[in-house]
Amino acid sequence: MANDASAVGSDATERRTTRTNVLALVGDFVFFSIGFAFYDPLVVVPAFANEFTGSALLVGLLSTLRVLMITVPQIWAASVLEARPRAKPLLIASSIGGRVPILLLSIAVLLWADTQMELVTLVLALAVMLFFTSEGLNGVSWPALVGKVVPEGFRGRFFGLGQLLASFGSLTAGFFVNRILDLQSLGRSGRWSLLFFVGFVWLMISVLSMVFIREKPTPHVSEARKGPGKPDIRESLRKAWIYLREDRWLRRVILVQLVISTPAATFAFFVVRARQTIPDAATMIGTFVMLQSVGSAAAALIGGTLIDRVGSWATIRVAAAVEVLALAAVTLGGVTAAALPFYFAAFFLMGFVNGASWWSFSAYLLDLAPEAKRPIYLATNGILASVTALNPVIAGALFEALQPEILFGGASLLAVAGFALAWTLRHGIASKTVAGG
């Protein structure tokens, strides 16, 4: 009887811990998305750069920095997680380090945007680099933490619920983006400075939510080491190579992501083209953010259900198909008289793609790899994506050299190839052991 009571108490404690973790992670999800809406790299940052410099090439360069900084640090993050029993400390430290520079950007814009834009551009580049370095590290630590503290049969619904609530949060934030950029009581630099500052505040609130996550140490690490181990990047790279060589489905999903992400390099130019085509587009930045949020909400409702009931591979297929539609919509928007509905559709569909893609690929990798190997699987996928880093610069150069609709049309054809590859992903993945661990 005592043993039964102890087991019941343990189960109740486990349920409370799981509930606390899910609430904390969803809070992080939602607060991050609200803050991100004020610093959106596909709408807000390109619009800011375009308004103050008029350079499409700068938009491409900033997008390249984003890709590089997201992907390259991931192998280091995996090495840290392999050596240490908990993912939460790295997640919190990297988040703080990546978000404080947004406050510095806000101050720089307020002081110098109208007089020393070259200096502000350097601060913007630094803020983008550090923020997305942080997100690159979090791209390994956050999914690894989710894999530890969220039960396997609930992950799809967790991702879907988190994305849905986050979409509502960023939808509301989009309204305030419009309001801030329309404030006549502030000058142009003051409005943009306030926008970045509000984003910084909400991003830091998301860090506060992370503090409440309760994480048990990973058994294979805690048994081998009494204290924190030293990261070994060479060993992590060796394992990454072994897993790539031995697991053809890891190779396949990485190839799919590379092909799908290549046409997505043009997403940052949707807002640039809209500002060129639609007379009042400069006042619609928040509206475009809101449309992205609605698209993300739709992705949450559809993708979360598909992951749990069908499989993560199905959500990847849907995201790939929607990418084709998004690029087709922005192409038509530039060549038809009624451009606005097509641009609205393009931003909605872009939101769907961005909302569904990152966590559907993460869910696929979590299913593919056993817990001990997940950091390396996640990092392998991330670091190989760095080969697409120059795509935004190339897209920016082509955007200035060609008719933009030629660029978008070519990207839509490549997206069709990505959809065809996504159709070949394996169904019904079960966790398994891969040689070389």
Keywords:
437 residues, mainly alpha, Growth Hormone, Chain: A, 18 helices, 0% strand, disordered C terminus
What topology emerges from the helices and strands here?
Blueprint: H1 2-37, H2 44-53, H3 56-71, H4 74-83, H5 88-112, H6 117-149, H7 155-181, H8 188-210, H9 219-222, H10 233-246, H11 248-261, H12 270-277, H13 285-309, H14 312-333, H15 339-368, H16 374-384, H17 391-401, H18 404-422
Helix pairs in contact: 1-7, 1-8, 2-3, 3-6, 3-17, 4-6, 4-10, 4-16, 5-6, 5-8, 6-16, 7-13, 10-16, 11-15, 11-16, 11-18, 13-14, 13-15, 14-15, 14-18
Question: What spatial form do the alpha-carbon principal axes imply?
Answer: globular
Structure classification: mainly alpha
User: Uncertain regions: pLDDT < 50 for 5+ in a row?
Assistant: 222-227, 430-437
- Assign the CATH class: Mainly Alpha
Q: How many DSSP helices?
A: 18
Helix-strand pattern, N to C? HHHHHHHHHHHHHHHHHH
CATH fourth-tier homologous superfamily? MFS general substrate transporter like domains
Query: What is the number of domains?
Result: 1
The assigned CATH architecture is Up-down Bundle
Q: How far apart are the first and last residues' alpha carbons, in Å?
A: 42 Å
Mean pLDDT: 85
How many strand segments? 0
